[in-house]
Amino acid sequence: MLLLHGLLLLWREGYALSNDAAPFEVCAGNHNKAAFYMLEPELFEALLDELADRDLVHEARARLARKSEAIEVDFDDL
User: Would residue 7 count as lying in a domain?
Assistant: First the structure.
């Protein structure tokens, strides 16, 4: 659930607003446009982890496409 609040309310009661919206994300708006979002740290961390995983998948696929350039290595030689 996304709670919408104006910047004036956030300025006046920011801390109370973040406590009241604890399990939800908060979107602070300015002139009916999103100015910024407030997320719980756990949710923000999960979003960053998801983005990092997507980057790793992209890199793995790019490397698989260049498989013909790979050099074969025996682990015992390392």
Answer: yes
Q: Is residue 73 part of a domain?
A: no
Range of the domain at 53: 2-68
Amino acid code (one letter) for 19: N
- Starting at the edge strand that comes first in sequence, how are the strands of the sheet with 25-30 ordered? 2-6, 25-30, 33-38
Please write the tens of the pLDDT for every residue from 34-69.
777 777 788 889 999 999 999 999 999 999 999 888
Does the pTM of the predicted model rise above 0.70? no
How far apart CA 2 and CA 71 sit, in angstroms, is 50
User: What are the backbone dihedrals phi and psi of residue 25, each rounded to the nearest 5 degrees, phi first?
Assistant: -90, 150
- Asked if residue 75 belongs to a domain, the reply is no
How many domains is the chain partitioned into structurally?
Answer: 1
